[in-house]
Amino acid sequence: MTVNEHKEKNSIILLLSGKITGIESILFSKQIEKYRNADCDRIILDLSAVTFFDSGAIGSFIYLNTIMRKAGHEILFRGLNEQLQELFRNFSLDHFFKFESV
Q: Which CATH superfamily is domain 2-100 in?
């Protein structure tokens, strides 16, 4: 998994790519801590280049969503392919997270 960051207006865009499994999920959870005090209104996770993620990644997304909401940031997901959208629906997370269409 790789993460590329850029700013867009009052948002930080995190473009994730590759597979997000096991250890990558743990590392991602630790990496996102730095965004808690970020100077932005929202953080957008762009998953358009993600080919696969497992339950560990979902746990990381839930963690990110929780800590960022507490810090006053909005979290949005962007670019989910049909398979990843289905995974969010199967876990009933499509109502927990916010999604943005590009």
A: STAS domain (3.30.750.24)
